[in-house]
Structures are given as structure tokens and as C-alpha cells.
Amino acid sequence: MVTNYLKPLEEERVYHLYNQGNNHEKIFINDENKRYFKEKFEYYMCPFVTIICMCLMDNHFHYLIRIKTWEEMKESIGQFRGLAKFIARMGLMQNRTIASMVVSEMLRRFFMAYAKAFNNMYNRSGSLFRKNFRRKEITSMQYLRNIILYIHSNPSKHGYRQDFRDYPWSTYNEWFEQNAVREEFGFDIYTIFGEKNNYIMLHILKKDSYDENQIE
After folding, report:
1. Sheet of 134-137: strands edge to edge?
2. Structural domain contains residue 6
3. In a domain, 7, yes or no
4. What is the pLDDT of residues 4-57, one digit of tens each?
5. Fewer Cβ within 10 Å of end Cβ, the chain: N or C?
6. What pLDDT is recorded for position 182?
7. Are the C-beta atoms of residues 2 and 83 closer than 8 Å to each other?
8. DSSP H stretches of helix in 81-195
9. What is the pLDDT of residues 70-93, one digit of tens each?
10. Strand, coil or helix: 54
């Protein structure tokens, strides 16, 4: 597990992305905010990353993503204004891959777009998110399994739901069916959890056992 929060997001690697509101303030006031955040994340990021799982809470969020390869990203560059010029301008940087720079730029655009809309809606100003969103690279199958359990169990951990399984803003209920086999991750989902009953049971058994700083 890599915990360098400023480490570049590199292609074909899996990361846990998370952040919270500045000074622990809410970044979602209602479900409409969560819906807008989710839609905007998918609009800005899905051409460049694959979402493995996610959960949105009132004052923070969690996404587990796989960075696509540059070859996978190429066809989407023209969809976003100024992105081709950004790549050309940044192409001389030798310490970052193009894919890494594109993902960072699109995350920047996403956070700015959501914060601007949120501030306009609630007549506020200033930074919405804590500076420097957190990212942890997933480097083992065990950590991958545990972080999926952790993300889906977040509503119970933080007291939003006694039973996290009925929380609408996570991928728990849709995850197993949609991710049954995802070859682009470099692993078979059944390798992580086995059958669906095991997926369900592990979530129930471990939902209260995680401290994010100790997940390994």
C-alpha cells in the first residue's frame, strides 16, 4: 500500500481516492447534490478511469478507480475543450506520463466544476474541499478486497444507516452484478469474493472492523 498522497496517478494502476469538505464542512446538502456530483464525476472521469466502487457521504466521498491506458484515453481527448492543447503544452514534462497528467487535469476540472456549482447554489465562496485529495495505490489483492468492504460499509461506520445495504449512494447493491468479470482490472472479481453469498457475508461480518489508517 502506497500512502504518498501526492504521488502521480499512473495508468493501469488502481487507487482509492477520497477527500472531505474543507474544515469538515458538508459537500452535499441533499440527494440532488450527490446525484450531480456522481454525474459530473462520471462525465469528467469515465473516459479516463474505470470506477470499481464508490460511496458518497455528507462531508466526504470515496472512489476506487483504475486508471486507463493512454491508448484507451486517446479517443476521448477531443470531447473536452482545451485538453489537446494542455497535453501538447505539458508534453515536455519527463517525470510524468501523459495518462497521469490527463487524469490529474480532469480531476482538477471536475472538482472546480462541482465546487463552483455548489457555491453558486448555496451562496458561499472559498474552497469547498480539503486541499490535496487523498490517493492510495492498491498493491495487493487483500487490500483490494478490504477497501471495497470499507467503502461499501461507510454509511454504517459513520452512522448514516444502521444497515449500509439500503444506502442509495454507494455501489454495494449493484457492484457484484456489474463487476462479475472485469478483465481490464487484471483480475477476476470472483477471485476476490468468490460467490455472491460470500460477498454479502464478508460485508456484514467486517462492516464495523475498519480504521481507514490501518487497512492493509
Report:
1. 49-56, 60-67, 14-20, 134-137
2. no
3. no
4. 567 789 999 999 999 999 988 999 999 999 999 999 999 999 999 999 999 999
5. C
6. 57
7. no
8. 83-90, 98-122, 141-157, 172-178, 189-193
9. 999 999 999 999 999 999 888 655
10. strand
> 122-140 burial, b for 16+ CB within 10 Å, e for fewer?
eeeeeebbbeebbbbbbee
Nearest to 62 by CA among 140, 179, 158: 158
Q: Which cell goes with 49?
A: 478511469
Residue 173 within a domain: yes
Q: Say which CATH number the domain at 122 has.
A: 3.30.70.1290
Q: Does 102 map to a domain?
A: yes
DSSP 92: T
Total tally of structural domains belonging to the chain: 1
Helices (H) and strands (E) in the chain, counts: 8, 4
* Cell numbers linked to 124: 458561499
52 CB-near residues (< 8 Å, 6+ apart): 14, 64, 65, 66, 148, 179, 182, 185
pLDDT of residue 39: 98
Q: How far is 177 from 200, CA to CA, in rounded Å? A: 12
Expressed as residue numbers, the domain containing 71 is 14-214
Checking DSSP bridges between strand 14-20 and strand 134-137, what pairing results, if any? antiparallel
What confidence tens digit (pLDDT) does each residue in 155-213 have? 887 766 667 888 899 998 887 666 655 555 556 667 778 777 888 888 888 755 555 54
